Amino acid sequence: MAGADSDRHRVVIVGGGFGGLFAAKFLKRAPVEVTLIDRTNHHTFQPLLYQLATGILSEGSIAPPLREILRRHRNVTVELADVNAFDLKARTVTAARLLGPPLTVPYDSLIVAAGATHSYFGHDDFAPLAPGLKTVDDALELRGRIFGAFEMAELEEDPQARRTWMTFAVIGAGPTGVEMAGQIAELSRRSLKHNFHRIDPADARVLLLDAAATPLATFGEKLSAKAARAIERTGVELRMHSRVIDVTTDAIVVEGPHGEERLGCHTKVWAAGVQASPLGALLARAADVETDRAGRIEVEPDCTLPGHPEVFVVGDLMALNGLPGVAEVAMQSGIYAARTIKRRVAGGRAGTAKPFVYRDLGSMATISRFQAIVSFKGLKVGGFVGWLMWAFVHLTFLTGFKNRWIALFKWLSAFVGSSRDERTITMQQVSARIVAMRAGVRPGEESLSRYVEDRDA
Amino acid sequence: MAGADSDRHRVVIVGGGFGGLFAAKFLKRAPVEVTLIDRTNHHTFQPLLYQLATGILSEGSIAPPLREILRRHRNVTVELADVNAFDLKARTVTAARLLGPPLTVPYDSLIVAAGATHSYFGHDDFAPLAPGLKTVDDALELRGRIFGAFEMAELEEDPQARRTWMTFAVIGAGPTGVEMAGQIAELSRRSLKHNFHRIDPADARVLLLDAAATPLATFGEKLSAKAARAIERTGVELRMHSRVIDVTTDAIVVEGPHGEERLGCHTKVWAAGVQASPLGALLARAADVETDRAGRIEVEPDCTLPGHPEVFVVGDLMALNGLPGVAEVAMQSGIYAARTIKRRVAGGRAGTAKPFVYRDLGSMATISRFQAIVSFKGLKVGGFVGWLMWAFVHLTFLTGFKNRWIALFKWLSAFVGSSRDERTITMQQVSARIVAMRAGVRPGEESLSRYVEDRDA
Predict the structure, then answer these.
(1) Are A451 and B431 an interchain contact pair (Cβ–Cβ within 8 Å)?
(2) Rounded CA gap, B17 and B360, in Å?
(3) Catalytic: B179?
(4) B90 and B233 share a domain?
(5) Mean pLDDT estimate for chain B
(6) Is B420 within the bounds of a domain?
(7) Which residue in A403, A425, A450 is closest to B421 by CB distance?
(8) What is the per-residue pLDDT across A376-431, written as a single tens digit (0 to 9) for each?
(9) In the predicted model, is pLDDT for residue B436 greater than 80?
(10) In the β-sheet with B109-112, what is the strand arrangement from edge to edge?
(11) Which residues of A touch B428 (CB under 8 A)?
């Protein structure tokens, strides 16, 4: 309502992740009308999803509502809708809404920041058995499974079956995999102490598997080796040179240096592969351009779609100079696109801008409490100093003043103390499992399958 | 494991609410072996469920894991199981578990603290359309519906239909109903400000209906009248002398002082009736004793089951001297039962104890931020002083040191500020609705029905 002006330049942003949100925020006082379209009501602070999945932070702490973040941005309209068509000729985006006819929004400039999802490398049947960690739903599902596994182990009489409940496999030893494995190890050894009578949670076996030679390989040899030692000190069992070739209800099959092996485990986390949102393929078809193997769109040096200078593709959906799919690239490319649009509107130019240059602010990964590794312009830091840098950066970017203080408080209580405040298993999660067991559905398939089905529909 | 001693007196406690939890805690150093059985992994701090349902607190803040609360109680075993049979002759309790054969636990003393659930007064078909507020699942479901209703209103083009999404009906003007209505009004007027473009959330209509003449009638005429004025100042529309005779997807039918009226509204909260857990009827049949109209068991003056001095019934499941179903009665009767057992074990007596005497510590209800009414031994306090007393008492009883500070911090940010940090609508909630709409199921019926079905199975 406020500030609406139909003659203004119309910007449509698809996706409220780091790319889309930072683009919308950058356009705050620009003389444009922005429509931000997302499928959920919240921004997801993906780098901390592992803390939601392991009981440290609540969903509200890492997933603030988009409407709330953007409430002072009078020129932004937030639409809760699921984009399903681009018309590059008519310059419109179409999206399904919960209610009523589809939404069709015309644009003068379009920023597509639809992000990425998991890749199971052609094994989509693994998905319900080994959820990834890209959304709040994923994290809540994993939280229920992880804490639930200890409950099941407590009930199990057969030692072999109990061991299967007490074994956790994290597939993929990038930052997310390392963080998940480290936190599962910590909660089993510290947070759940004295919680059970028949099992000792500290007996939990946490496997971290990867086909590469070292964990966190992108951090370079020295830091990676340091990380490997730190990971093993937390009690995590590192399995490098190991490819997961099959996933079943209660096991994974691994092809490793010594041949094939079947490892019994109920709880699996998929942190191995990433592929672009299906919107990438949709947009590529509409523009008749190429995508790379991960489904990302090969963009021009100014982040635009080839042949369509008015369409920007940013963040994880963009393939440009081999830039990695991390939050920092998404933010910078989102802001870059917004700045380009602002300049064009101000100057009336529609030509090419200066190419997008990524300012590498380094990368970091936490291993366990007070342990992180940081790589920044040749500077390689590990241990506690690395952890302090990690904490500082994450607090800085955590959206919302209060969330920061709550997060800091919870980190202190989880890391100096040992507690996990968010351990709720809902009856919905429990009864989904009961219903599935009664119906003969393989456990682990029931609760996510509904969601996956609907997502694909 | 630690401290297990098979010769010890065995106490079985059914239910980890205020009654059961406080009984277990009281027995900490007693020479008994305690088994606490609950269907969920958490204690639920029911007096603050309305804050979970309206986005102020997270589930972890009000539902700490039972295992965690009792981790230092070496003589307590927590069992996650659903009690379904009492054998008073063999002195055993049987419960279904998620896994394996049913659990059968023998007891020397039994404390049944299974609590209460909603009563729809014979209209169980209202349940999925107008959920109550007794469990974490209820609160999360209502949270999704309340915040989701504003999203739907934003999408709705038809003014009449939009009004239906923007109307909230709370049925029952006891403490829970007053708190829910007050918080929905506050979040619509303060927290959601500037969040939407097409609707003004402050236009939301919040109805609070009750068949009685005044809200919070149990607080006495003067305080009740004061509360009524305070409620109306928050913008809540009070409808007294009004009975809800039908509930549909998008309306309620009310029989009021001026006849029958149909009021369009999508979001309904049931805070009207309470009935004892079905375990009450089960136990009564086993013992061949009477239940009252609400399904509660008429106990002896020492809270024992008639004819069974070794079986205690406490909390909301107990009918004794007309005591109300509030947390304070549950705590005191739970502790009373535990103390009696401890004395018997120490003294070897199995005789009758001194009757249970409830020490009335008063009652309180919040109306809106900084407004509460308190009734304590003839002292009647309202307004801000009442609110301070409310905050003090609730912080005192909120289990767990950290939860208290987090709660205080969130109250300050929600009441001095205006934010609600916990507004996540999960994709599971959204897609349940989409699936239901596609399948032609009436919205509001899909997500709870699974849970209710399973609960009844």
Answers:
(1) yes
(2) 19
(3) yes
(4) no
(5) 87
(6) yes
(7) A403
(8) 877 888 888 888 888 888 887 776 656 677 777 777 777 777 778 788 877 767 66
(9) no
(10) B103-106, B92-97, B76-87, B32-38, B9-14, B109-112, B308-313, B304-305
(11) 137, 140, 428, 447, 450-451
